[in-house]
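Worked Example 4.2. Read the sequence first, then its structure tokens.
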Amino acid sequence: MDRSNVTLERMRSFVRVAERGSLSAVARELGLGQSTVTRHIRELEQAVGVPLLTRTTRSVRMTEEGRRFYADCMQILRLVEQAGDEARNTRGAPAGTVRVSCTAAFGVLHVSRFIFAFQDRYPDVAVDLSLTDERIDLVREGVDVALRLGPLTDSSMKLKRLGQSRRVLVAAPDYLASRGRPTRPQDLAGHEGVRMSNVAGSDVLVLHGRRGGRHVVPLAGRLRVDHGLAAREALAAGRGIAPTHLWLVGDLLAAGRLALVLPDYSPPAIPLNMLIVPERSGIARVRLLVDFLAKEIARLPGIEKPPPGRK
């Protein structure tokens, strides 16, 4: 094996191609030409003496040798990054990039300003914030930390429970004045609902009474949206009634642009969690941002502590 050709740059190209399964996607991500990424892989394979990837017209996959080499590369790259972290920490200035994924509306309204404050405190840390409501593969997309609402299915990530996101039923005062204010859950059947097209079961509304009892009522309506900010605007414009997160509409409620509907009943709260790629959790800048975001998010109105026994 020609060790001089086993460089960190070539290893990084190989690792990302192995994770993303696309030479062109990795070229765009790394800011390189596709021919350069291809050359990195070819020279690395020549250096180690075995094929690492199997290429077809539709996909790129690791060979058995590639899987073993990938694990070794990950360990080496992680050690190199941690060594750099420790060296920078001697002068008390964490640096580098942290990649964060967050549900779009929560990111726009709250997480973005938390990140601004974090960067004011740590000016050498760059943050790449991706806003999407899709459940992405963190490793494949090169993300370090993801903020997610709802149940989780990815057990391979490190989990930090941030709390429960309280939801409320709201509508604009003008809408309620023209259509009438519901006084019991069954009254909702005759109202316009603003529904989320990307949320399963949004045509049915579940409400829990303050004094107990569970009510399930249909939620119909002519408007469906796939973005929390669009739902916020629709509600403020008097397009109907909807269950929504308090952090999404708290300012509109305070300003009187929205009003609570059936305040003695509430939709179930939604879990809010942070997922961290285990291999990245020990990096100082990632750890600092995780702790900073967790502290700031816990202060938001409507974010309640996790149930007892959970952290």
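Now turn to a second chain, presented in exactly the same format:
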Amino acid sequence: MKKFNFLPIILIVMALLVSACGNNDKGANTNNAATGNTGANSGKADTTATATLESVKASGKLRIGTEGTYAPFSYHDATGKLTGFDVDIATEVSKRLGVQPEFIETQWDGIFAGLNSKRFDTVFNEVSITDERKQKYEFSDPYIVSKAVLIVSEDNTDIKKFADLKGKKSGQSLTSNLTQIAKSNGAEIVATEGFNQAIDLLTSKRVDATVNDGLSYLDLKKQKPDAPIKKVDESADASHSAAVFNKGSEDLIKAVNKALADMKADGTYLKISEKYFGADVSK
């Protein structure tokens, strides 16, 4: 029987195994490198984590959730540019933090979900401070003071006070604290996406009223004095609004509070407030 020399075959097999292992190692290193380019060790901010002052400065921007349809706080002007009181305040705060503002527009009913998912670092959108919200979120120092108002069509004679909402249709954003006022007075809630839609439903007689923000109402009447609506009642207590953050952003909030305090001290806040309201709306 002819004898075979298996040594060359064994050497070839071993060479192939070494080569395969080498290729696998290269692939693993490539994957790790790709992960590192987007991870915390790359020097870039991790946008899936709770925002901190360090992460915001590392990214070079403050990601800000806002509606973009809520005049005069956050809306688009005639040229299509995003503007408004909250937009100007957030822009100035970002400047004082040494970063650029990045505004991410979101419907009101999804704005807290966006904050929960870390889609943005904070929300500047006249968010009222409530005990319920404080259980889950952190707030900056308040920088807006406003009262809830009851708005009806100009020819409405049935609704004169909040108590008259019983059995009436009221257009409300479902996640707004103002909706609770309408509910507590017996109103039938008709869901809206925000102030503008509530007013549209009201003027088209698809709802009887809306409980909404007094400053927004004043701005609307200033822009459209012939709008066929009127204010018939006002809440006794004022609400305080602030920027809202996820818990864990305390050092970022501290920096934002300093920026807001400095803006009030040097007159920047008053200048912005008078631009939109003709008065200081922090009092």
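Notes for the reader: Confidence is low (pLDDT under 50) at residues 1-45. DSSP finds ten helices and eleven strands in the chain.
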